[in-house]
Specification:
Length: 132
């Protein structure tokens, strides 16, 4: 079922959301100071391309540097990516078959706003406790 949802997601919105994250990553990698944001953006682009079967977990070792970085990210690119997820989620929820994908788009809003300090892991790893 995850594979089917991922394929439908990829066709309807995953490709364009991943392109948005990749574009934000390229822009962030232009300046040396924002390279960590670019790396996080490329990591999330893969998650936006194929989200079902993966989830996010907080990194226990992240601290105030992640918090400050997330505030900067939110102002620079996070708001725009979150607006993209909101728009995509509303459009997907307009159809019955798109409701699960719309909910997935809404669930990606927190990571689009605050990508630093979280890891993207398989759902099975979280269930077995291996992600911690």
């Amino acid at each position: 079922m995850r594979t089917l949802l991922n394929i439908i997601w990829l066709v309807l919105c995953g490709f364009w959301m991943a392109v948005g994250y990749a574009l934000a990553g390229v822009v962030c990698c232009i300046l040396i100071v924002t390279i960590p944001f670019g790396i996080a953006s490329f990591r999330i682009a893969g998650y936006a391309l194929w989200p079902f079967g993966r989830t996010t977990v907080p990194k226990p070792q992240s601290g105030t540097a992640s918090l400050i970085g997330n505030v900067i990210w939110m102002v620079v690119a996070g708001i725009w990516l979150a607006i993209g997820h909101i728009t995509t989620g509303i459009a997907l929820c307009a159809t019955i078959i798109g409701i699960p994908m719309g909910i997935a788009s809404f669930k990606m809003i927190p990571i689009s706003l605050m990508p630093l300090g979280v890891d993207i892991v398989p759902v099975d790893a979280v269930r077995s406790g291996a992600a911690y």
